[in-house]
Amino acid sequence: MxxxxxxxxxxxxxxxxxxxxxxxxxxNNAGAYALSIVAARLLAPSAFGExxxxxxxxxxxxxxxxxxxTVVALRVARLHSSKESQDNGTLLALGLTTSAIVATIxxxxxxxxxxxxxxxxxxxxxxxAVTLGPLTLLGLFHGLLQGSGRFALLAGLMSLxxxxxxxxxxxxxxxxxxxxxxLAGTAIGSYVVIFCGWxxxxxxxxRKAGWHAGEVLHAAQAMLALVLLVNLDLVLARHxxxxxxxxxxxxxxxxxxxxxxxxxxxxxxxxxRFANGDDRRRILPAALAVCAALDAFVLLVSFxxxxxxxxxxxxxxxAASTMPVxxxxxxxxxxxxxxxxxxSRLAAGDRRVTVLMWTTVVVETVLVTTWxxxxxxxxxxxxxxxxxxxxxxGALLELRSRRR
Length: 404
Prior knowledge:
83% of the residues lie in helices and 0% in strands. It is built from 15 helices and no strands. Helix 1 packs across helix 10 (264-270) and helix 8 runs antiparallel to helix 9.
């Protein structure tokens, strides 16, 4: 009887963890959306465009943090499963080194951002670089908590991250009234959050790292390709379609993001389990099934309401739109499956998956820019097919690895 009670308690704990992580992720996404709305109302169009472009660069800039989190979570999970002692000091040294490299690159590229984004001052670009340092290090603390299965604390740190970044940005925006003020608030909030993360992870002291940072680079490359795929079709649509149709496409891309982000908690929860080969082979089909079931709801809604969803999201100005919505939901759903398969292959040390990801980026870019761009439907169809092909290729890699 006691064994049954323990099993039931474990299941309950997993459900609670899934709910907490899901709520934290949802709150972060909602906070980012709220920041955009407030900024759009407070700033002039040119200033809002400047802030939006800088925040888009920030999204790409935190990709090394995602790679760091993935590598650290897998390493910590392996140590836990093998009952080996965990030395957070060496991992902290790796995190500090990675964050210093990312921040330095950001500082070097600051003048380039001024030129490319037509900024009036170098200060926002420098603030962006200063913010990348703590946000990269935050990936380490996420990985430590995720790998050790402390999902309640992880959800708390995620919530603090959203409050620190978004809250700091809003305060800076209200005080400064421009992108510089907003980014200054983001930087300050980010440093507060990493201090909280350091406390939650037991206040480790850095020690000389005993393993190579190439793992982080490999994971970051793969995660960068995934981030590009999630946003690539929107950029290509903006480049190839007329302005009005590109605006409609941007609304459809929100459905893509919903389908992609809805099952995010699944990846957070299963990644540490992927560190063990037997667990990975057993859990992966269930994780894919859960993702598919969650996104089936998004697909069903997009089929049922069709283009009426666009007027619901964007207002009455899009009531006359006839653009199909379900391909956007399908593209996001396929990318959610790709993420789970990517985690599995990274855990297995399969370097082929990185080549596969970047090949898909190139194929989608070439198809849309040279051939299939006469309508929004064509662009999103290419995106959905590329995402589906990538998911299928990832599944085939997984099956081949199991037959060895």
